[in-house]
Design a protein that fits this description.
The complex is a heterotrimer of chains A (94), B (728) and C (134). Chain A is mainly α. Chain A is built from 3 helices and no strands. Chain A has one domain. Helix content of chain A is 78%, strand content 0%. The longest helix of chain A has 28 residues. Chain B has 728 residues and is of the alpha+beta class. Among the domains of chain B are: 164 residues, no CATH class; 144 residues, no CATH class; 143 residues, no CATH class. Chain B contains 21 helices and 11 strands. Chain C has 134 residues and is an alpha+beta fold. Chain C folds into 2 domains: 33 residues; 90 residues, Beta Barrel (OB fold (Dihydrolipoamide Acetyltransferase, E2P)). Chain C contains 1 helix and 8 strands, in the order αββββββββ. Chain C has a 5-stranded mixed beta barrel with strand order 2-4-5-7-6. Chain C is elongated. The N and C termini of chain C lie far apart (72 Å). The chains are: A mainly alpha (94), B alpha+beta (728), C alpha+beta (134). The interface between B and C is large, with 73 and 53 residues. β1 of chain B pairs antiparallel with β1 of chain C, so a sheet runs across the interface.
């Protein structure tokens, strides 16, 4: 094997080891994330999805797929679900 | 450099194995640093395999024939674009491409979810790394792209000329992107099952775009294959229900079902077992599709001979199936539905029906594809099914599917009232049926299935058009924008919805094109002498005269083509002139074949005469009758064999060139007969137009909305909900 | 009707439909499929029956006819060969030594190929055989 190839391989090996082991050596930009932070992110995603559902329901009403009555029921239910999520968010944020 | 390439792959394998262990250890022990290390393994593999792939590409582009694979699949006369693409025309190159794409998408999803799904992501990482390890192991131990030839030949074998078509070169990367992207939601589903997180839709939300992207790429790959078959091969069709075509269709069908049914889980918490099973099946089918093309277990135009990879792949697929079933059974308590189906007249019901139809289609295709093996297992004799059997089942199912795609967007969630349904469906139904009546009167009633597809297609187009119309109306009522701006902002603010609608329209157009071109085409095989004509559909094809030419590239003979000038007319008026040809590439084997004869013994390709139009395609291919040239060729062989070595090389080359020119001229002067296949086929172009619309719709649905707009919208609802919060 | 009962009925209907479809599939696949054979198998072929023949095109056996091509197909490994008459467009990759799949019917001493059923397997790119031609 020629010397250049060998050098390249060694350099690559060193780089990979450095990259992969960085968290183990405490070198990576470690944000100590508690379980709660992760929960917050999930709840945020659910909140956004719920808002999208509210918007879609309104869109359905305006384009005639839902009657006024049906939309009122659906809207109220979705808002209640959104409130639940917001409450959970408040709790998670502590 | 080949050594470096090999080392990179070995390193990738080692890192993959390490990453699996680190991810699982970190997940089990709750140690973040090990999880992070596992994630970084994926990034490292992406970098390593990119390097390996780059080395291979450079070798191809430089025509470095010391690489065995470059020598086998490329040559100095191959055009640059095809040199680059030839890298994945081989077994080892295609495996490397698969691994590369897998590592890229895996890195993308893990980077995007690095702060979410903390419990699920490590297991998903382990699964993805497991796939990476499998393919890396194949590349290291079984089929390496970095094998060297002791003596580098001066010239390579060259790329099969049939593959020298842009579609054919983009087709594998598209397909593999589809397959590898489907492994992402697969991996996250497995992770969600293991960690009992599968009840919530979080794993779906995180991987939804990847599933959609997979669906899009796989679909494009399939369509490119169909387009190539139509425009390049001499049979004039675009789909043959060939086992390998079917293998790529299977995960696409289940993937389509998946991207619809996840909407139900997101909105109503239903169909959890179904969703998870679907995506697990899709992932397995993606691996199966990858395997089938290189296995040789089924007779197919793509069956590239028996291979050594059968056992590893079958083992992997077996493990995947067993693990999937095991996980679903183990976690079935987490997969209970939160809600029930309220009414059969609801979007949930339509989506469910759509899912059932798609899964039924997948089952039909699966059964028909594997029937040879099943029959052998059941009865001892191998049996094979042809296209008519597939058509018998898939056509009615496809009609139902198109119809559902027109109903789905318009019907409400949970429960649609009858009056509401009437309001939304009246116009599309009336329009579609009216069109059906008109078409029936024009003669379409002879083919009821095609007519049904036309009616359903029209239903979809009008139904979706009505949606756009109403949406624009709503938008304008809210903001007073002009129609075009309203349309733009409507779509921009509801990308998933309107992108999806566009996809439905595209699919409807595509199926209408398929129905029309299959049911109402006119194909004939005839033998004509110059001056003779044949009629196909409304068109008359006249064989005017023969053509022949020698094509050279960089001073070397590339191919010898024999063709025809064909005039097409309709009602006496000239429509177009086509020049179909058959090209003969020289064989590289100089030993077994005669010096002149070898120019006619290599690959042959057809140049199709195609006049495409919105209403119909006119298609023709020809096979020249070169029997009368054979005596001359054989004589040439004898003369040149006898003169071998007696002339200086340059003179011999010139003499050979003159001999070939003589043969080519003789073909013209003989005024030879030729065999033609002529086809006039309506609405074929709508298949390709429909595909483009599907692609655009998919892109729109995929496109992430700008953050600012999202926040603006959210703020509005946040204010409203906050009121409730205050009240609550 | 109570919702639970409605759901059960729907489930039964759906399952019955699935069973029916599956049954139809199995039945028609047995009925409409052709036996997949090699040239050796065709020694006991019945006149008028259709078979899906797989094998290699015998070198030197290809004769262009006015309507298509006549050739012989032999076992992948072995010399047993059968004659095939095929009318129609011949696929581009068709050549001697290549593996083909063709649906044939026995007529007299020869086998007549069904139109458009001739498939030539793409030259092996995924095979161990390194000696590639062109």
């Amino acid at each position: 094997m020629d010397i250049v190839a060998l050098l390249v391989i060694l350099v690559v090996l060193a780089a990979v080891v450095a990259l992969v082991s960085a968290p183990l050596r405490g070198r990576a930009a470690q944000r100590v994330r508690a379980d709660a932070e992760d929960r917050v992110a999930e709840l945020e995603a659910r909140k956004e999805a719920k808002y999208r559902e509210l918007r879609d329901a309104e869109m359905d009403l305006r384009t005639g797929k839902l009657s006024q009555e049906d939309h009122r029921v659906l809207d109220r239910q979705l808002r209640a679900e959104a409130v639940e999520i917001l409450k959970a968010l408040d709790d998670a944020r502590g | 450099m080949a050594t470096v390439g090999r080392a990179l792959l070995i390193l990738a394998l080692v890192v993959a194995l390490y990453g699996v262990a680190a991810s699982i250890y970190g997940a089990v022990r709750g140690r973040d640093e090990w999880i992070a290390s596992g994630r970084r393994s994926v990034y490292a593999i992406a970098a390593l395999v990119t390097g390996a792939f780059a080395i291979l590409e450079i070798a191809f582009l430089r025509s470095d024939f010391s690489f065995a694979t470059v020598a086998s699949h490329s040559s100095t006369t191959t055009p640059t674009f095809y040199k680059g693409a030839a890298a994945w025309s081989s077994q080892e190159g295609s495996l490397l491409l698969w691994l590369w794409l897998l590592s890229l998408w895996s890195s993308l999803v893990l980077f995007a979810t690095r702060n979410q799904l903390r419990r699920v992501a490590p297991y998903a990482t382990a699964v993805l790394l497991g796939f990476a390890a499998f393919f890396a192991a194949l590349l290291v131990f079984k089929e390496t792209p970095f094998e060297l030839r002791a003596v580098a030949p001066a010239e390579g074998n060259g790329l099969n000329p049939l593959l020298r078509h842009p579609s054919m070169m983009i087709h594998p990367p598209m397909l593999y992107s589809g397959y590898t992207l489907f492994t992402i939601p697969f991996a996250f589903a497995v992770g969600a099952l293991i960690t009992r997180q599968v009840g919530a839709a979080d794993w779906i939300r995180a991987t939804r775009r990847f599933a959609l992207g997979a669906w899009l790429f796989l679909g494009i790959g399939i369509l490119l294959g169909a387009r190539w078959s139509y425009a390049e091969l001499g049979w004039g069709g675009y789909w043959a229900w060939d086992p390998v075509e079917n293998a790529s269709l299977l995960p696409w069908l289940t993937g389509t079902a998946f991207i619809h049914s996840i909407m139900i889980q997101e909105k109503r918490g239903m169909l959890k077992i179904w969703n998870v099973s679907l995506i697990l099946a899709t992932g397995v089918l993606a691996i199966l599709g990858t395997f089938l093309v290189r296995s040789g277990i089924l007779d197919s135009i793509h069956a590239f001979g028996a291979s050594t990879l059968g056992i590893p792949f079958v083992t992997l697929i077996g493990v995947l199936i067993a693990a999937s079933i095991g996980l679903v059974v183990l976690r079935r308590s987490e997969l209970r539905s939160e809600n029930r189906l309220d009414s059969l007249l609801s979007r949930e019901a339509i989506f469910l029906l759509n899912n059932l139809v798609l899964v039924a289609m997948a089952f039909v295709v699966f059964w028909g594809t594997f029937w040879p093996l099943i029959a052998e297992a059941l009865t001892g004799t191998r049996r094979a099914l042809g296209p008519p059997w597939f058509d018998k089942y898939t056509v009615p199912l496809a009609i139902v599917l198109v119809l559902l795609s027109g109903i789905g967007p318009v019907i409400a969630w949970r429960k649609a009232t009858a009056s509401n349904a009437r309001r939304n469906f009246l116009l599309p139904a009336v329009a579609a049926l009216a069109l059906g009546a008109v078409l029936a009167a024009m003669g379409a009633a002879e083919r009821p299935l095609a007519l049904a597809m036309f009616v359903c297609g029209a239903f979809v187009v009008v139904s979706v058009g009505q949606e756009f119309w109403r949406g624009v109306g709503v938008r304008r009522a809210m903001t007073g924008e002009n129609p075009l701006a309203a349309l733009r902002s409507l779509v921009a603010r509801n990308r998933r919805r309107y992108g999806g609608y566009l996809v439905h329209v595209g699919m409807a157009l595509l199926f209408v094109g398929v129905a029309a071109s299959t049911a109402f085409n006119d194909a004939r095989d005839v033998r004509l002498a110059p001056g003779q004509s044949v009629r196909s559909g409304d068109y008359t094809f006249t064989y005017r005269q023969a053509t022949s030419r020698i094509s050279t590239r960089d001073g070397e003979l590339e191919k010898i083509s024999f063709g025809a000038v064909v005039d097409v007319s309709r009602d006496g008026r000239h429509v177009t002139t086509m020049r179909p040809e058959r090209g003969y590439y020289p064989s590289r084997d100089v030993t077994g074949l005669g010096p002149v004869g070898r120019f006619f013994e290599g690959e042959a390709t057809s140049e199709i005469g195609l006049d495409a139009g919105l209403r119909r395609d006119i298609w023709t291919a020809m096979t020249p009758d070169i029997r009368r040239l054979l005596p001359t060729i054989e004589q040439g062989d004898r003369v040149f064999a006898a003169a071998a070595g007696k002339l200086p090389a340059q003179l011999e080359g010139q003499a050979l060139g003159a001999a070939l020119k003589g043969i080519v001229d003789k073909y013209l002067s003989d005024r030879p007969q030729a065999t033609f296949r002529v086809i006039s086929s309506p609405l074929v172009t709508w298949i390709w137009i429909g595909s483009i619309v599907v692609f655009l719709g998919g892109l729109i649905a995929l496109w992430p909305g700008p953050d600012a707009a999202r926040r603006r919208v959210s703020a509005r609802y946040a204010a409203r909900v906050a009121e409730d919060l205050g009240r609550a | 009707m109570p919702p639970a009962r409605k759901r059960r009925i729907r489930l039964v209907v759906a399952l019955s439909a699935a069973v029916l479809l599956a049954g139809a599939l199995v039945y028609t696949s047995l009925l409409s499929s052709n036996q997949a054979v090699t040239p050796s198998d065709l020694r006991s072929a019945k006149a008028g029956a259709s078979y899906q023949l797989t094998g290699k095109v015998v070198a030197g056996s290809v004769r262009n006819t006015s309507s298509g091509v006549d050739f012989k197909v032999r076992d992948r490994e072995g010399p047993t060969a059968v004659p095939v008459t095929y009318s129609g467009a011949v696929p581009d990759p068709f050549r001697e030594g290549r593996e083909v799949i063709v649906t044939v019917r026995k007529e007299g001493a020869t086998f007549v190929g069904e139109r458009d059923s001739l498939v030539t397997k793409c030259p092996s790119k995924f095979t161990e055989d390194a000696t590639q031609r062109s």
